[in-house]
What we know:
Layout: E1 2-3, H1 4-12, H2 14-24, H3 35-57, E2 62-64, H4 71-86, E3 91-99, E4 104-118, E5 121-130, H5 138-155, E6 161-165, E7 171-175
Parallel strand pairs: 1-4, 2-3, 5-6
Antiparallel strand pairs: 3-4, 4-5, 6-7
Amino acid sequence: MLSAGDLVDFMACEHLSMLEGKVALGELERPPFSDEDRLVVEKGREHERAYLAKLRAEGRIVVDIPGRPDPIGRQESAAATIAALEAGAEIVHNATFLDLENGWSGVADFLLRIPGRSRFGDWQYEVADTKLARSAKVSTLMQLCVYGELLERVQGVAPERMHAILGDGSTQSFATADYVA
Length: 181
């Protein structure tokens, strides 16, 4: 299975992708995170939690999908995501996708319900991901596009827009059709 992160890594450095592949196959051990890497990861998680708290403080109804990295847990999370979308959840947090046929998986920070037709009814979803940066980077757009394609396979229609929730509290939105190619 490949993920949005795998694609971003490949575009940044083919050698990194080769090393990650060896780690996935158990041929190499991943070096430990540096203190700086741990700090960045934790700050990213704090930003995501703060955005989640903001949504809830606004009275928005959020369905949390439990994330588990093991294969069975990932399948259960993907099934729970689809169930939430079918039920018309306003916002889905940690939306998990598995496309076994094409070999892709992903976990989007948020799916936002908007009016429109989809296989679910008179609503559809768009992807929103939290990022610490103050502007969306190419890697962010690539990641959002992967999540958008995975979402399209589930809801039967491409999301019109995708959103980056930035570290300064702003949101940058993009027309999916302008970037998906």
